[in-house]
Request: fold
Amino acid sequence: MKSKQLDLINREGEAIEEAVAWHTVGIIADEGQSIGTGSAILWRNHPLILTARHVIETSPDSDLWFHFRDARTMQLSGRGAPPPSRRTIQAQSQNQDSRS
Reply:
Protein backbone atom coordinates (compact mmCIF):
# COMPACT_ATOMS: atom_id res chain seq x y z
CA MET A 1 0.00 0.00 0.00
CA LYS A 2 1.30 3.44 -0.90
CA SER A 3 2.09 6.12 1.64
CA LYS A 4 -0.72 8.37 0.33
CA GLN A 5 -3.25 5.56 0.71
CA LEU A 6 -2.13 4.89 4.29
CA ASP A 7 -2.34 8.60 5.08
CA LEU A 8 -5.89 8.70 3.69
CA ILE A 9 -6.91 5.66 5.77
CA ASN A 10 -5.41 7.24 8.90
CA ARG A 11 -7.22 10.54 8.28
CA GLU A 12 -10.51 8.71 7.72
CA GLY A 13 -10.02 6.89 11.02
CA GLU A 14 -9.31 10.17 12.79
CA ALA A 15 -12.47 11.69 11.28
CA ILE A 16 -14.57 8.81 12.61
CA GLU A 17 -12.99 9.13 16.07
CA GLU A 18 -13.74 12.86 16.11
CA ALA A 19 -17.37 12.35 15.07
CA VAL A 20 -17.91 9.70 17.74
CA ALA A 21 -16.15 11.74 20.45
CA TRP A 22 -18.29 14.84 19.81
CA HIS A 23 -21.46 12.78 20.27
CA THR A 24 -20.43 10.65 23.27
CA VAL A 25 -21.81 11.79 26.63
CA GLY A 26 -20.61 10.67 30.05
CA ILE A 27 -23.43 9.98 32.51
CA ILE A 28 -23.14 9.87 36.29
CA ALA A 29 -26.15 8.67 38.29
CA ASP A 30 -27.13 7.20 41.68
CA GLU A 31 -25.35 9.90 43.67
CA GLY A 32 -22.11 9.21 41.83
CA GLN A 33 -22.28 5.42 42.25
CA SER A 34 -23.19 4.64 38.64
CA ILE A 35 -21.25 5.66 35.54
CA GLY A 36 -22.26 5.13 31.93
CA THR A 37 -22.24 6.67 28.50
CA GLY A 38 -24.80 7.88 26.02
CA SER A 39 -24.96 9.14 22.46
CA ALA A 40 -26.15 12.66 21.71
CA ILE A 41 -28.46 12.67 18.70
CA LEU A 42 -30.92 14.95 16.98
CA TRP A 43 -34.19 13.15 16.19
CA ARG A 44 -37.02 15.05 14.48
CA ASN A 45 -35.46 18.34 15.64
CA HIS A 46 -35.32 17.12 19.27
CA PRO A 47 -31.90 16.80 20.92
CA LEU A 48 -31.76 13.49 22.80
CA ILE A 49 -29.26 11.37 24.69
CA LEU A 50 -29.57 7.65 24.08
CA THR A 51 -28.30 5.33 26.79
CA ALA A 52 -28.99 1.88 28.20
CA ARG A 53 -31.87 1.70 30.65
CA HIS A 54 -29.71 0.24 33.45
CA VAL A 55 -27.54 3.40 33.46
CA ILE A 56 -30.37 5.69 34.62
CA GLU A 57 -33.34 3.55 35.69
CA THR A 58 -32.87 3.91 39.46
CA SER A 59 -32.06 7.63 39.48
CA PRO A 60 -34.47 10.56 39.44
CA ASP A 61 -33.84 13.12 36.70
CA SER A 62 -32.47 15.54 39.30
CA ASP A 63 -29.65 13.06 40.12
CA LEU A 64 -28.37 12.64 36.56
CA TRP A 65 -25.20 14.45 35.52
CA PHE A 66 -24.20 14.69 31.86
CA HIS A 67 -20.62 15.39 30.84
CA PHE A 68 -19.92 16.56 27.31
CA ARG A 69 -16.60 16.78 25.54
CA ASP A 70 -14.66 19.93 26.34
CA ALA A 71 -13.25 21.69 23.30
CA ARG A 72 -9.79 21.69 24.93
CA THR A 73 -9.64 17.91 25.41
CA MET A 74 -9.03 14.90 23.22
CA GLN A 75 -6.95 16.79 20.70
CA LEU A 76 -4.81 14.54 18.54
CA SER A 77 -1.18 14.79 19.55
CA GLY A 78 1.20 16.30 17.04
CA ARG A 79 -1.50 18.03 15.04
CA GLY A 80 -1.59 21.33 16.92
CA ALA A 81 -4.95 22.35 15.47
CA PRO A 82 -7.89 22.72 17.84
CA PRO A 83 -10.85 20.40 17.31
CA PRO A 84 -13.77 21.71 15.24
CA SER A 85 -16.34 23.84 17.02
CA ARG A 86 -19.50 22.23 18.29
CA ARG A 87 -23.04 23.45 18.50
CA THR A 88 -24.79 24.05 21.79
CA ILE A 89 -28.03 22.20 22.48
CA GLN A 90 -30.74 22.94 25.02
CA ALA A 91 -31.00 20.12 27.59
CA GLN A 92 -34.50 18.83 28.22
CA SER A 93 -35.82 15.79 30.03
CA GLN A 94 -37.42 13.30 27.66
CA ASN A 95 -37.79 10.53 30.25
CA GLN A 96 -40.23 8.09 28.69
CA ASP A 97 -40.66 4.54 29.87
CA SER A 98 -41.16 2.10 26.99
CA ARG A 99 -42.59 -0.49 29.42
CA SER A 100 -45.90 1.43 29.72
